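User: Teach me something about this protein's shape.
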Amino acid sequence: MSDNGLAVDVVRGEMQPWSDYSGKREATHGPVLQALLNDVLPTDGLPGERRALILGPHGADLVGTVIAKAVETTVLVRSVSDATALTEQFGDKLQVVAGALDGLADADRPRFDVVIAADGLDRVLGYDSEDLDWEQRLDALAKLASPEAVLVLGLENEFSLTNLLDRRPADQRHGDDEWRPLHDAPSRPASADQLAAELARIGFSTARTYAAFSVEQTAYALVSVDTAAAARPGQLPARLAIEALEASAVAVPLLAPVAEGAETAARAGLLGATTPGWIAVCGGSSSHAVYAQTPGRAAVLTADASAEGWNVEVSAGTTESGQAESEVSFSAEVVPSTVPGGVTVETLLFRLAAAEDVPGFRELAARLGDWARTQTEGPQVVLRWDDVVVAGDSFARGVSPWVTTKPEASADLLAAAWQRLHNRLISGHRRHPWPPWMVGDDLVTVWLAMSGVAAPEPVPATAPDSPSASAAQIARGKVLAGALATAIGIPSDTPQAPDLRTALADAEQARTESFELAGHIFGLERTLGFRDKALKTRETRIRELRKQVQKAKFARARLRNSRAYPVVKLIRKAALIRHPRKFAGKVKRSLKRLIRNKIG
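Assistant: First, the predicted structure itself:
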């Protein structure tokens, strides 16, 4: 009985104290799954009395969606405290049952027309439940569903890239406190085909199976397995899936970059086989081929293949908590309704850089600059080469909904795009032909010059820390690139959480730089030592010269004070007389005049 007087039904297998909604054990939720349920569950036309069952821990957003679609909704959770919380939250709109799946299957209850088990069948057994393997749990689910029921079933993939690259050992990935069955049970399906075969065994034909690219219990992208198998690196489904996998770096410590492995899997057509999980949909209304959550925004993008590429729709969404929109803002209206099916410009630029094809890189950069200067109509979308798509001989904008909050010069938008490419190229340790001393503002300036933006004139430094002309030219582009990275929830200069291989590469690069700096410091210290010795030698010579000068001054003073000095001075003056006779006559006349004056 809850505090508001509503009763909680209890069947065998209830757990207390326990919670699947707090701590590490979160409920399955998210706007992507909510959008899928909105499409799959029709408002009208459900068979029978439109009774729905939500099996396992699901978030309030998904529970509310099912309640809006069904006449009667029941949710089964194994925790009594979780059941009480759901009852208090939804009141009489929801019938809550606390217990295990086998306990509910053994109870005498009418079958359900809709069964939602997006969380899978791992968290549906309790302390008192029998040791049921995955097949037996699926059989128990089949007892609760009517023959024509709509079924949405989730399954975790042990062969996922995030699981294979998780650097934690198995005992830390799956702890005893989870209270989940063994993940390597032989009866557990390990592929989308095996999941479809198991559903066919209990009489459900799979309408569509989605590869769920999720982080913990939140699906950031759902891509149908057929679409994922056909997606190649740089194409829209692969890019949305990789963005979702990169978000998993926040929760999963990885051995290597997950994006690199996902691109390799996409080239092999195995992107749908290495997903973190699958969502199987049996019956119900038609759904889209791709569902994806816009990074930094609770907006959902849906896409379907067409002759022109992809037909795209984006919901308005809401800003996630803690996100501030200053330099850029979200605008679903700028997302085109049709996006070409080609690869992104970033994919081509990375290929050219890895091949050290600088002429090809320069030619593509020049075309991008010409195209960017023609994009003057409507709101100014922040350019990002990982979203601009190659469309024949030209280019087209992708699905990025971020625009500038005020008019910006085309050169600044280009600088922002090249700055973002620089960050992704360098932080990802990708191959490129440019020397290490060019990495940074100078390299971005070179790329800007390739795009048709004239390089700035060199400015003489007025101080040791004076910024270069390149830094001044791309300053606004850095601000826009940083604002975009903040808006989508990824730091602009470094990855969200470096994987082990990237961390080791960064450490090795830091050691190399430290060794080079140590050599430079040693050279400077040696040069300073030589200069110090030279200064000491000069100081010794100056002291000797000062002593000699002092001796010369003393000797000169003694000479001036001697009696011989006036005689010598007179003789020196006499030696300067050119006509001695005339001088003697003048002296004689002067003496006579002097004598007469004294006598008289």
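Now, about its shape. The first strand starts at residue 9 and ends at 10. The first helix runs from residue 31 to 40. If you'd like, I can walk through any region in more detail.
User: That's plenty for now, thanks!
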